[in-house]
Structure formats: structure tokens, C-alpha cells
TrEMBL record:
<dbReference type="InterPro" id="IPR027396">
    <property type="entry name" value="DsrEFH-like"/>
</dbReference>
<protein>
    <recommendedName>
        <fullName>DsrE family protein</fullName>
    </recommendedName>
</protein>
Length: 123
């Protein structure tokens, strides 16, 4: 079986972007259910998806996010992007028990997945 890391950069406030994110989340769930090792990481404006999915212009984003969360696919959110100097959503994510990767001084790169033999899918 394969190992796949979905890196989602989509803005949940944009209809076309939130549809892309929902599809990526559905694909991740489908792959996991077929026995693959799958994780989802939110970066850039995608870091907002865990807290903004309910208010997205695409109403299918929240159910897609919730399903991926229930399946245990959410690896985490970029702590750099979530930090106060950037999107300033760190505290909201921590209240949702979302793991932050990196901090306001350190932005992780996709080598954290490549070094563990994941195929990276950037959406």
C-alpha cells in the first residue's frame, strides 16, 4: 500500500478553493479506507480550514473536513502560518486540539513527509 500526504493550501473563503479542499479530503478518506497510509496537513490559507469550514461558501467543506477528522487523517496545521504575525489563528486551532507543526519562527517544509517516504499531493 502507498503512503500519501495531502498538503492543502486552499482558501476556505473562496468557493472554487473550498471545493478543491473538499475533494482532497474526500480522496484522502477514500485512500485510507482502501488501506493506504494517509495524512492531511493544512498550510498557508488552508490553515484556516479547521476553523472556517462551517462558514465556507461551499457547504460540502465542513462534512468533508469532519469525516477526515473522524478518520484520524488530520496530521496538523502549519504553526508558522497560524501564528499571530501571520493568520493569528493559533489559539482557535489549539482549542480544537489541532496539532501545530512549527511556530512563528519556523516554517516546516514538505521534506518532513518526503523523508518518511510519503508521496506529497499539494492542493
Amino acid at each position: 500500500m502507498g503512503k500519501y500526504a495531502f498538503v492543502i493550501l486552499c482558501n476556505p473563503d473562496d468557493l472554487s478553493e473550498s471545493i478543491k479542499a473538499a475533494h482532497a479530503l474526500h480522496y484522502a478518506v477514500q485512500l485510507k479506507r482502501k488501506g493506504h497510509d494517509v495524512l492531511v496537513y493544512f498550510d498557508g490559507l488552508g490553515s484556516r480550514i479547521p476553523i472556517a469550514s462551517a462558514n465556507s461558501p461551499y457547504k460540502g467543506l465542513k462534512p468533508a473536513y469532519d469525516e477526515a477528522y473522524r478518520e484520524g487523517l488530520i496530521y496538523g496545521v502549519c504553526g508558522y502560518c497560524a501564528s499571530p504575525p501571520h493568520l493569528n489563528i493559533r489559539d482557535s486551532l489549539l482549542k480544537l486540539n489541532i496539532k501545530l507543526i512549527g511556530d512563528e519562527e519556523h516554517h516546516e517544509d514538505i521534506s518532513m513527509f518526503i523523508d518518511k517516504d510519503y508521496t506529497v499531493l499539494i492542493v
